[in-house]
Structure formats: C-alpha cells, structure tokens
Write a structure and sequence with these properties.
By secondary structure, the protein is of the alpha/beta class. It contains 13 helices and 16 strands. The chain has helices spanning 10-26, 65-73, 98-105, 124-131, 142-148, 150-158, 188-200, 208-214, 246-249, 266-274, 292-301, 313-321, 346-354, and strands at residues 38-45, 48-56, 81-84, 109-112, 135-138, 162-169, 174-177, 203-207, 231-235, 256-261, 278-282, 306-309, 327-332, 341-343, 357-365, 368-375. The radius of gyration is 23 Å and the shape is globular. Bound molecules: ligand AOF and zinc ion (ZN). Zinc ion (ZN) binds next to loops. In the C-terminal section; belongs to the HTP reductase family. In the N-terminal section; belongs to the cytidine and deoxycytidylate deaminase family. InterPro entries: APOBEC/CMP_deaminase_Zn-bd (IPR016192), CMP_dCMP_dom (IPR002125), Cytidine_deaminase-like (IPR016193), DHFR-like_dom_sf (IPR024072), Eubact_RibD (IPR004794), RibDG_C (IPR002734), Riboflavin_Biosynth_HTPR (IPR050765).
C-alpha cells in the first residue's frame, strides 16, 4: 500500500482555509473583545485528509478557536495540519498561549492566514511553532482574513473600532420624513439584511436625535438569532435619552451604552445608570459636541472591535467629515418620500467620494439596491 500523502498541497490548503474563513465569519459580532478566529484540524489518513476538529473563538472571546478545535480532535491532532485564520497567540493573556497548546498536541503543520497585529503576538506564535519543529506556512487566504478581523486590526493599531455606516435613501434622495418618526424606506428583504449586519457587528450606534424621533429598538430580530443582538450605543451629549425609550425599557434584550458629554446633567446620568444604562463620559470637541474620535477610543477600550452606525444624518456627516468611517452600506429604494422629506445631507454623498471610498459590492434585495463601500486600500 502506498504511504499516505504528506506533501503540502496548495489546492487543498486553499480549500480548508476557505472553510475556516467561512467559520470565522460566522463568529462576527459575538467574540468581542477578541477577534473572531477559526481553526480546522485535518488529519492525514489512508483515505485522504479528514477534518478531526473545528473551532471558532467562543462567545465573549474565550476559549480561543485553537483550543476548541484541539479539544474536538483529541489524540487525532498528533501529526495533523492545523488551519487558522489568525496567527495563534503566543502571549500569556487571559488564557495560556495557543502556540503551546498546538505544540503539546503534536500538530505537525500550521497553515495560517495572517500574522496577528496585536503587538503582544506579532509573529511570536508563528516563530514559537517553527522553533518547535512545526512546519509553518503564512498568507493563504490573507486578504479575506484581514477583512474579517479589520476591527481587531484597527483596535490594536489605532485604538478604535471599525465603523460601518448604514443609510437607507429613497429615490428622491431622502432618509426620512420630518416629524413622522420611523419611515419605511426599504422593503422586508433589505431590512432582514440590516438585521444580519447588526448581528455581525459588536455594537449599533445612533445619535440621540434618532432615538427621540424614531424610538428604535436596535435589536437583531432574525428568527433564531435573537441572541445576536449587539450592544446599543447612543451618542447623547446632554444625556437626554428618555427612560421610557423602547431600548431602555427593553434593556434585558441587549446592553445600552450612552456616550454623554462631560457637562451632561448629573441627575440625568444617575437616572440612566439606575435604569441599567452604561454611561460613558467623553470630552467635547471645539463645537461643543462629543469628540467622536475620543468617544470611539473609549469604546475600543471597553472591548468593541466594530460599530455599525445607523443614523441620523448629523452623526453620519460628523463621522464622515472626521474620517472615521471605514465601510458604508447604502440602501437605495425605488420609492419616493415626497414633500416633507429629510434630505440625505450632501456631506454623506460627498463624504463617500472625498474620503476615497471604493464600491466593493452591489446587490439587489427585493426592489432595493445595496451598495457596499470600503475605504480605498482596505
Ligand atoms: C488566538 N485564537 O481564537 C483569538 C485570538 O486575552 P486573551 O488571552 O483572550 O488574548 C486575546 C488576544 O488573542 C486578542 O487580542 C488577539 O490578539 C488574539 N486573539 N488568538 O490564538 C483566537 N481570538
Ligand atoms: Zn490563542
């Protein structure tokens, strides 16, 4: 009988890495303060390669993906190949290093999509395994892996989370109707997509104007995904968030964080805290409003790697002009709002061009169109 094939096979590596990247994507929004990482362990048998363990970073960040996959593989990990979407950690953080666990389990080969930009790791995991005699290949699936952990990269390099701006614009260029609260601009297919996007982010943010006008719940209401609801954040300089707001009354569904100015009335701050709202005081910029860059830094310090901003127009404009938007999701509907509409500010349209965004994807959802933008070069 011929010996089992042990020679690295590029096509096979791409295939297993693609599976791992798919798994990692499914963990998005659930693993903060850690990035969503996946590991797949493949043993060589006489019948060819067999997956003996799979893991994604657990909800809340621990255990890490490799530990979950190794537990499933047991002794079958000895001599096997491990595919990881991010370099295994080598530091003693809140958990022991994954590089040690992989070594101890007898992994013979590591295929890793990318180096971990976390300065505590930064190549140390790959080096530790190589030094232990493990064959290490880095870079397969790197572009997609970087896209998945973009928020983690920004958090460790710039100290702020990834910001995705979501807007729905009617055919006549409106984002709502004055004094009417929430207006349905897009259809049910696009709305389902928005709920999925919510679940893929660590948090959703709106300005206080949107809360006062629309009273949104900001939860993920997809069947079977209710636990995917991210943290709800309100930019609220003067702590005006009403205790009777739906998101405060329904605080059990998902946490609510209010970012208030340092001069916000203390009795309002105390009332919000008593209702279970986490109040974060941020310094003001020159215009008296919250300094958005610093506010985002405070969110990253609390562990968030990604935030989806859902409105309103003022917050969207302010983030765009501060250069703090990394991705944008613009839904356009064929329907018109007509008289009394609130126009999407020119800043939003111009901002996407000014900050040099490129359109990465265009997709139809029922009658609506979704256009995705990313910062050029991202
Ligand atoms: C991995 N596998 O699944 C993830 C990793 O505080 P700790 O010990 O949980 O370490 C957190 C850091 O580990 C995090 O900032 C990131 O650099 C890395 N994430 N590493 O080996 C994983 N999620
Ligand atoms: Zn680890």
């Amino acid at each position: 009988m011929p010996p089992a094939v042990t020679r690295p096979d590029a096509e096979r590596d791409r295939r297993f890495m693609a599976a791992a990247l798919g798994l990692a994507r499914r963990g998005l929004g659930r693993t903060w303060p850690n990035p969503s990482v996946a590991a797949i362990i493949v043993a060589e048998t006489e019948d060819g390669p067999v997956v003996v363990g799979r893991g994604v970073t657990a909800a809340g960040g621990r255990p890490h993906a490799e530990i979950v996959a190794l537990a499933e593989a047991g002794t079958a990990a000895r001599g096997a190949t491990c595919y990881v979407t991010l370099e295994p950690c080598s530091h003693h953080g809140k958990s022991p290093p994954c590089s040690d666990a992989l070594k101890a389990a007898g992994i013979a080969r590591l295929v890793s999509a990318m180096e971990d930009p976390n300065p505590e790791v930064a190549g140390g995991g790959h080096r530790a395994l190589e030094a232990a005699g493990v064959s290490v290949a880095v870079g397969i699936g790197g572009a997609e892996a970087r896209e998945i952990v973009r928020g983690h990269i920004l958090k460790v390099t710039e100290g702020r989370p990834l910001v995705t701006l979501k807007l729905a614009v009617s055919a006549d260029g409106m984002i709502g109707r004055k004094g009417e609260g929430q207006v349905a601009i897009t259809g049910p297919e696009a709305r389902a997509r928005v709920h999925l996007m919510r679940a893929e982010h660590d948090a959703i943010a709106v300005g206080i104007g949107t809360v006062l006008a629309d009273d949104p719940e900001l939860t993920c209401r997809l069947p079977g995904m209710a636990d995917g609801s991210p943290v709800r954040i309100v930019f609220d300089t003067n702590a005006r968030l009403p205790l009777g707001a739906r998101m405060v009354e329904g605080i059990a569904a998902a946490p609510v964080w209010a970012i208030v100015g340092k001069a916000a009335p203390q009795e309002r701050v105390r009332a919000l805290q008593a209702a279970g709202v986490v109040v974060i005081a941020a310094p003001s910029a020159e215009d008296g409003r919250i300094d958005l860059r610093i506010a985002l830094t405070l969110l990253a310090a609390r562990g968030l790697t990604s935030v989806m901003v859902e409105g309103g127009a003022d917050l969207a404009s302010a983030l765009l002009s501060a250069g703090l938007v990394d991705r944008a999701a613009i839904f356009s509907s064929p329907g018109e709002i007509g008289p009394g509409g609130i126009a999407a500010p020119d800043m939003v349209r111009a901002g996407l061009a000014l900050s040099r965004f490129t359109e990465t994807e265009t997709r139809g959802f029922g009658p609506d169109l979704l256009r995705l933008f990313a910062r050029e070069g991202d």
